[in-house]
Amino acid sequence: MKNIYSNIYKPNLFNLNKAKKNVENNNVIGIPTETVYGLAGNAYSNESVKKIFKLKKRPSINPLIVHFKDFNDLKNDVILNDSFKKLYKKFCPGPITFILTKNKRSKISKIVTAGKKTVAIRIPEHKTTRKLLNILKFPLAAPSANISSQLSPTSASDVVEEFGNSLKFILDGGKCKIGLESTIIDLTTTPTILRTGSISLKKIEHVLKKKVKERKKIFKIKAPGQLKLHYSPGIPVEMNMKYPKKNQAFICFGKKSKNGKNYFNLSKKGDLKEAANNLYKTMRKIKNKKFKSIAVVKIPNTEIGCAINDRLKKASFK
Ligand code: AMP
Ligand code: MG
After folding, report:
1. Which one of 3.40.50.920, 3.30.70.1150, 3.40.50.11030, 3.30.70.20 gives the CATH number of domain 237-315?
2. Phi and psi at residue 94, to the nearest 5°
3. Does any ligand 1 atom lie closer than 6 A to the CB of residue 168?
4. For 103, which DSSP code?
5. Which of the residues 48, 102, 238, 302 has the least number of beta carbons within 10 Å of its own beta carbon?
6. What distance in angstroms lies between residue 143's CA and the mean position of ligand 2's atoms?
7. What is the location of CATH 3.40.50.11030 in the chain?
């Protein structure tokens, strides 16, 4: 199919170099990852990072995740500990973000970390973004490529839907393999999950061979109400519903579910991974079909189902 968007670029060598030039010049660009698309800029540059916050309309108290190529690149910016080394070995590159203490000699912009002494770091697996990191001399600060509190993008055209022409360059890495944001684990204290994702608490406990806590609260909310509604399609979402109301879109799951014009099945075969991958895409479709609200059937709260329910809970916050 012909690319109808002038700001989406195929991930060939020529365009990877264009992407490199863009971030070197402090511009922000869209990048693919295995979780969701990111809005990326030079993590060492205040100018670049300010543009990310502005374009996303992100509150300045909400720090960004910094993306690195590998272990060797991290040492100057964060203090590595044993738990990190074990989890790195098992899960990286992959869909997991670590909160670590910032190294005193780190060049990461204070704006990235919202002035904190900690940094959120991730080593993404997507081959296009790895190729880009490989040719850069700095890590990339990259939150999800969406307007703050709205749905995360899982394809390059979703990113265009979010920012239109105000984002000039997006690397096309196809559809995201996972489609939900990374698991976030704080390793500066007793290991604590701050955000659930495809790498579950159980898998992490298995590697660390110790109990891992889970923070139910969405991080320290310094400005009341600011970060509660998240992952939102911009219309009301109701969870654990058996049926839709009149004119309501219904997100269902599994083979027993009925069909209908307003029915959107996340996975006919009842596969939670497939459901996770379809969640944002489906909510985007419903929003674009101009439905006024969404009812969602009860989703099993196991494995990645926990991450689906976490996102739905935040999307349904009133
Ligand atoms: P996003 O970039 O929107 O996918 O979300 C990343 C999440 O990581 C945000 O909710 C941040 O609050 C959290 N985060 C990023 N950096 C830090 C940090 N240094 N300490 C604690 N949480 C962080
Ligand atoms: Mg986000």
Report:
1. 3.40.50.11030
2. 175, -175
3. no
4. P
5. 302
6. 6
7. 237-315
Tokens of 125: 């697996």
Question: From the CB of 295, is ligand 1 less than 6 Å away?
Answer: no
Ligand 1 pocket residue status of 99, Cβ below 6 Å = yes
| pLDDT (0 to 100) of residue 225 | 37
144 CB near ligand 1 (under 6 Å) = yes
In this prediction, residue 223 carries a pLDDT of 41
Whether the predicted pLDDT of 219 surpasses 70 = no
- Supply the pTM of this predicted model: 0.95
**Kind and range of the H or E run holding 297:** none
Do residues 160 and 259 make contact, with C-beta atoms less than 8 angstroms apart? no
Strand order in the sheet with 65-67: 8-9, 170-171, 29-31, 38-42, 140-141, 65-67, 118-122, 96-101, 183-186, 192-195, 213-214
State pLDDT tens for residues 33-89.
999 999 999 999 999 999 999 999 999 999 999 999 999 999 999 999 999 999 999
Tokens 């991958």 — which residue? 277
Q: Is 43 in the pocket of ligand 1 (CB under 6 A)?
A: no
CATH 3.90.870.10 segments of the chain: 8-214
Residue 258 has pLDDT above 90, yes or no: no
User: Any alpha helices (H) in 176-289, and if so which ranges?
Assistant: 201-208, 272-288
Q: Is residue 233 a contact partner of residue 294, using CB atoms and an 8 Å limit?
A: yes
Residue in the block written with tokens 């990286």 = 92
CA-based R_g, the chain, Å: 19
pLDDT of residue 218: 53
* Token pair for 175: 């559809």
Q: Which residues pair with 184 in a beta bridge?
A: 97, 195
**Ligand 2 centroid – CA 237 distance (Å):** 18
CATH of domain 8-214: 3.90.870.10
